[in-house]
Fold this protein.
Amino acid sequence: MQNIEAIIFEITGEEVVVTVGENDVTEIIYCEEKGSYKVYKTSREDGKQFLSSEVHGVRVVHYDPTGALSNNSNMKKKWLQ
């Protein structure tokens, strides 16, 4: 399974990019049952990971083929229909 580096979707006509490593986002996981993406963050208070949001209608998924989740130049894009 490839690691997801970032997802792009729209809210009220504005493009939103969620990226692992920014704004406390620690992991993005695809939920096949619901066809959605779950965004997990780490709490600044206690360091525990929690589900921040579940996103439907994602247009673009960036995968990190190295598994390192650190070098954006290595990302591969998958455009969703």
Strands lie at 3-11, 14-19, 25-31, 36-42, 49-55, 60-64, 76-79. Confidence is low (pLDDT under 50) at residues 69-75. The chain is about 0% helix and 55% strand.
